[in-house]
Amino acid sequence: MSSILTTITPATVTALTDVPSVQAELGLTGQTEAGYLRGQIAQASAAISSWCGRAFAQETVREVWRPDRCVESLSLARFPVTNIASVVEDGTTLASSDYEVDPDSGLLYRLISDERTAWRARKITVQYTGGYILPEQANRTLPHDVQRACILMVSAAYLAKGRDPMLRSESAQDVGQVSYLDPRTGMEAMPPQAAALLQPYRVLTV
After folding, report:
1. Tens of pLDDT along the chain (206 residues)?
2. Are 62 and 124 contacting, i.e. CB atoms less than 8 angstroms apart?
């Protein structure tokens, strides 16, 4: 079930890693390549967010649902959930004892007499804060495997700098041979190791 999401307090940082971490991976020092790496980090972070189908940076948002049937739970778009400011059901603000949330999954449940029941309202509005604190911020909470995936993507882009992106293989022994990727099949920009690390964080919509 889809919702309408409005950002109340947008994230000030969206990078899933930082320049020093990538420099350490590549064995680089100084600031010569810092600008290039910063740009690649931004691109890789956006690609990861798109591939996973979710935003990772912590934000305060408002989500509105208009269910056409009873639902067992509401799936909040920003998670892990760190705070719920309010839950309004058909114009009535619920007490904190009238709902509970699984912070890690972002699933919000309706409670009656401390028992879970279905959401039956025609309009439900939830304002809350969810997402991770990123590596450039103090007290980071972003899982290290997500940051590792971003580092791998940026490192791959750096090492491939100046190389034909369509080139798959090249051989010069005896007879020169060059092989190119078929553009009709598409190109997987994400290294397999990064995709494997990110798989648990992917949100698939049906």
Report:
1. 789 999 999 999 999 999 999 999 999 988 888 999 999 999 999 999 999 999 999 999 999 999 999 999 999 999 999 999 999 999 999 999 999 999 999 999 999 999 999 999 999 999 999 999 999 999 999 999 999 999 999 999 999 886 545 455 555 565 555 554 444 333 356 899 999 999 999 998 75
2. no
If one counts the domains in the chain, the total is 2
User: Residue 182 is encoded by which pair of tokens?
Assistant: 């078929």
Domain end (from 73, 98, 130): 130
pTM of the model: 0.84
Domain boundary among 102, 130, 158: 130
Task: State whether 21 and 43 are in the same domain.
Answer: yes
